[in-house]
Predict the 3D structure of the following.
Amino acid sequence: MIYCYSRSRKSYGSYQQRIFHAGQREFSTTRIMANPNTVLGANPQPQQYETDLRWEMVDEYSFSHLHPAGSTHPSNEVLTYALDNSKKEGLPNIAVSPSQGKYLMLQARMIRAERILEVGTLGGYSTIWLASAWKGVRVTTVEINPHHQSVAQTNLAQAGVSNKVESLLGPGVEVLTKLAGEVKAGKRKKYDMVFIDADKINNWNYVNLALDMTRPGACIIVDNVVRRGLLADAEAAKTNPNVEGSRRVVENVGKDPRIDGVVIQLVGGKNYDGFLVATVNNDE
Ligand SMILES: C[S@@+](CC[C@H](N)C(=O)[O-])C[C@H]1O[C@@H](n2cnc3c(N)ncnc32)[C@H](O)[C@@H]1O
């Protein structure tokens, strides 16, 4: 059952007690919310968010313990600044969640990524996470909207990571085609990790281009493919280009011998969605 309710941050504690100490009924507080932000890229439809108090609470609880104030990098201050400044500058609230951002950073650290390519900068929130993975990492981030790029540059400077980030302006397919050419010509080294989070209709084009400029064993992550479960809905794909873009990338990765992937469904403070996580196959 879907319950609709409003909840202020102050009432969080009492909800927490009710959720964990009251009856079973409290465990199904899923709600559908209209996201006032227009989806960027090919789909001009307003988006709906589905969320659930338990998902928000687990995100808030776990993140507060695993990324505590004062002892973490990037600091909560620079992360909050990036989100607040993005909001002040009128950017849509569509950055990855704090836990997802931290996962990206840890994934980069796990493979000791030296070069990361990101498509879709927005205000640089995920870029800050990626650029904070370790001292040797460098990030190339691509954004089509000059205002978003400009806000991101302010946020990256505030986070102290500008010197680790190359910010490129332009349509992702054009920019990645140019980057792939530079890699092929030996003017640019191959990437170790790619994070794709821009116009969903081009998801497969971005993966396909990324395969021309990544090393074997590189990690490629495509955000927002689950789309509240619409990924499994072939009918929805006929009218929703974002769903079509998500299905195409999943199906093509499945068929392509150059890459191996899996979809990880995610819930959290921001939505029911998920990543496609893939790796570029080794030669042997
Ligand atoms: C979901 S937001 C990125 C969020 C960011 N990765 C984060 O988590 O902080 C998508 C971004 O992709 C950009 N974008 C949309 N279409 C694009 C395209 N064709 N090429 C490059 N960027 C694009 C949008 O302007 C927007 O800033």
Summary: The CA atoms of residues 225 and 246 lie 5 Å apart. Confidence is low (pLDDT under 50) at residues 1-28, 35-46. The longest helix spans residues 241-255.
